[in-house]
Amino acid sequence: MATPEVAIGPSTVAAAEDQRIFVASQWQLMWWRFHKHRVAVASGIVVAGFYLVVLGADFLAYADPNASEAQRSLMPPQPVHWFDGGRFRPHVYAVKGARDPETFKRVYRADPTMKIPIRLFPQGFEYRFLGVIPMTRHLIGVDGGLDAEKTIFLLGTDVQGRDMWSRLMYGTRISLTIGLCGVTLSLFLGVVLGGLSGFYGGIADTVIQRVIEILRSIPTIPLWMGLAAALPRDWSILQIYFAITVIISLLGWTELARVVRGRFLALREEDFVVSARLVGCTQMRTIFVHMVPSFMSHIIAATTLALPAMIISETALSFLGLGLRPPAISWGVLLQQAQNVQTVAITPWLMIPAVPVIIVVMAFNFLGDGLRDAADPYGR
Amino acid sequence: MLAYIGRRALLAVFTVWAISALAFAIIQLPPGDYVTSYIAQMASMGSVVSDEEAQNLRIQYGLGQPIYVQYLKWMELVVQGDFGFSMEWRRPVTEVIGDRLWLTVVVSVAALLLTWVLALPIGIYSAVRQYSVGDYVATFIGFIGLAVPNFLLALVILYLGFTLFNAHIGGLFTPELQDAPWSQAKVWDLFKHLPIPALILGLAGTAQQIRIMRANLLDELRKPYVVTARSKGLSEARVILKYPVRLALNPFASTIGYTLPYIVSGSIIVSIVLGLPTVGPLLLKALIAQDMFLAGTIVLLLGVMTVIGTLISDILLVWVDPRIRLEDT
Fold first, then answer.
1. Distances from the Cα of A20 to the Cαs of A25, A305, B209, in angstroms?
2. Which chain B residues contact residue A349 at CB under 8 A?
3. Measured between alpha carbons, how far is A142 from A131 in angstroms, rounded to an integer?
4. Most CB atoms closer than 10 Å: which of A75, A141, A240, B235?
5. Are A331 and A356 in contact, with CB atoms under 8 Å apart?
6. CA-based nearest residue in chain A for residue B15
7. Which of A341, A346, A357, A364 to mutate to test the interface with B (most CBs of B within 10 A)?
8. What pLDDT does A46 receive?
9. Phi/psi at B194 (nearest 5 deg)?
10. Closest CB from B18, B163, B265 relative to A221
11. What ipTM does the predicted assembly reach?
12. pLDDT tens per residue across span B134-151
């Protein structure tokens, strides 16, 4: 696969450079191109960071995400003070809660005399790291974290006094994996149906294309809402999780199918595919050994671009109370508390889960754009 | 051209059928049927439905028959304008929905129009002044518009309005006019309230259209005919607006088919956040209360209206762009 740089004029390019490009594999060429796209690379790192959070959510959380305490309801975030008397010693002030005798609201006051140092790797609640290794150590925390006096709430607490930071970590795990599951299912449907459509053409193609057109002209959110609301109330978190995945991907595979079909159509008449057929390759071999590798990169890019839509869908459904339901924790479930403006105006930190949604969606978009450009050998 | 419109119309009919089947599925999925909920509802009002009456109702609605017969019976009622009875509101579904359906249409169309009004000049500017500060700003806002889910945007705007201006942004009418009968004052009031919801709904679409407009116009501007026009001494405005913009405009029309369902979808959830009197909040309430006839009807009506909108845009497109006629027939 020649890149334009080579085609323009080998004489102007250094011979060594030339050799490197000629012998490079397709993936190597893609990597070089992708590398030049700075924003995409940075976005890739951000996405990787988010998936590290998915793996280590329990390690990064310092409080049990379901531990509620009425005494700490709606506590604002505790600011971290980095220095103590000129020395680096991060700490937070102890917070005392009391009920305002006039408004009956709980008010919290920081007590600067009582400093609670933040420790690295303190003991905390028990969990299994990566689902296997039993551990009690967490990244950060305070000594005696279960003591009501010594608490740390980096992002405040919700109505039931649960720590927002820890809940956000767990929410990341569910929100990002539901996107992955959904996209895997969509990818499967998209590749099979798009492949059928593009490779065989004819009636299969017509039918599948019409189905796609129909699905794309239906407003999806009302449909999702209807289907999600029809799920039995007594299903377990896991059942709901998979049902939501299926609902989201049933309507979301169309774009991937379109990409796959387009690629098949473009490649079907290429010389190397024709020769493969003439040499006597079986159909399976033609498809999987010769055709699929040459558009694999496009599928990866399309998949990356499909992920943010999945994440937004789950967030939107859960936000409305029709997707995942508590005690499951996802970004949408967390945002449910920020549904009306009065709450948000008084307790703005409940809106914090919106930040990772926006960052991840943007990062996936940039990453997908970069991958798509890199995957296209003829593009500039 | 007629063949093309015919094909489109046929596809629209199929789509409507698919939507009706899905809406029916939504009504059917929860356990129990219409009569069980009717009996429960009557019981909650203190009256008892006799077994005989229940039996008659079941026969009237064709419950207990094969599912496709039930579907056909339901369609028969729907065609006559009888969408069933809302359990929660204890009124016919049509009465509950009332004006809300039209307000949904108004909000969606306003969002669509705003998308074009904003995207066209910004897209042209971005292409003509490529890599200028304005271009970067437009691109940046475009990315934000694509990345921020519109319900979050609505929430943020509500929050900003509340903290910065101490004003409650939201709704489509001032409270005094909310329940007033339609009058000129009420229409004007609606008009004044429209921009914010329309902007929130249209931002993602606008962002996309700006990118498409910019890319297309850049392609066109590099073509020799533009150089020719310029060398003949045409004014710059004429060089750009007369041909390249007209060609680049095409995707604006052709993407309505995909933009419209997206906007209608978004209007549901944005209406819930902003408290707009569209079918959105009604649908959510109906779903939570398992008021399935109301929910199914809303899904059906929204779907049908979207399909009609798309069909109209398709027909407009053929009228605007002769190439499509050649291509597809």
1. 10, 31, 40
2. none
3. 24
4. A75
5. yes
6. A214
7. A341
8. 92
9. -65, -40
10. B265
11. 0.76
12. 888 888 888 788 778 888
